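Figure S7 source data.
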Amino acid sequence: MKQLKRHQLALYNGQDKKQIYVAYQGRIYDVTESRLWRRGMHYEHWAGQDLTQELPEAPHDEAVFARFPQVGVLIE
Ligand code: HEM
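Tokens for the predicted protoporphyrin IX containing FE complex:
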């Protein structure tokens, strides 16, 4: 399990690295395999950051993370 700081997570934005990560409630998920996160973009939201505050705006809840592996935790 990786421990990433925000500036490290930022590289997993679908542009700078091959792997695409999104943080939610302190957990970091690998969404690289999702067609809906291609190139790091998901309906006006960018990967590589903590999107906990943005989830209430989505038409879905956190159940969408169920099929993606948690690869780490966000430590600061
Ligand atoms: C407000 C804008 C957003 C819209 C319009 C949106 C829309 C959607 C739709 C239509 C789906 C596929 C259907 C479903 O699973 O219900 C989806 C899946 C997903 N969304 Fe969002 N979403 C938004 C924001 C977010 C945010 C902020 C996050 C992260 C905290 C997020 C994470 C995900 C994930 C991980 C999936 C699963 C992708 C997959 O199964 O391939 N979404 N979203």
